[in-house]
Design a protein that fits this description.
The protein is of the alpha/beta class. It is built from 9 helices and 6 strands; from the N terminus they run ααβαβααββαβαβαα. The protein starts with 6 loop residues before the first helix and ends in an 11-residue tail after the last helix.
Length: 224
Amino acid sequence: MDINLHSSWEKHLQSEFNKPYFKELMAFIELEYETYTCYPKKKDIYNAFNWCPFDQVKVVIIGQDPYHGAGQANGLCFSVNEGITHPPSLKNIFKELEADLSNPYPVSGNLEPWAKQGVLLLNATLTVRSGAAGSHQKHGWEIFTDRVIKTINEQKKNVVFLLWGSYAHKKAKFIDASKHTIFTSGHPSPLSANRGYWFGNKCFSKTNSQLVQVPASPIDWELK
């Protein structure tokens, strides 16, 4: 399977591609895409990296798994393609955004404009079989994406990490809090949000306040 990764990332991650786990992962993914319907489309698997080059990373949001419904996943965590109904977690992200920054609730659920401003929208697992949540977990993607987090931690400074929910919280062990900023909250899924662990966390305004102090340009979170 082709690894269509932006050159700015490739120079940092090239050594991973030759490791046995990654070769086994690619063989597994190739077979899955040949045998089943899988998401996102092959050309979109590395979109998180291609829309957000390494040198531009200012914010990292970590998801777990791509959406497994038809036409939803586009290679960016929590994001969906144009014209797709917003999944529950994305609805709650937009509700918090609306409450935090008074941004109007957007029509589009495509988060590509965030990525182009330096927000790495990284799923821990980059692919999934249609209708089967978690079907591509524990085949090697997590090793690769953990390396991505470690590389950002080692090679950059003053990055804001938004860790939403217990799964993302576990990634904090790879991040040096003395050189980066970590904001944790509950997950935007209805289960967590309705228990009071998501709404009111103000992660979007907190992120921009931190970026301005660096100093770096804040993120325009508003989606048209």
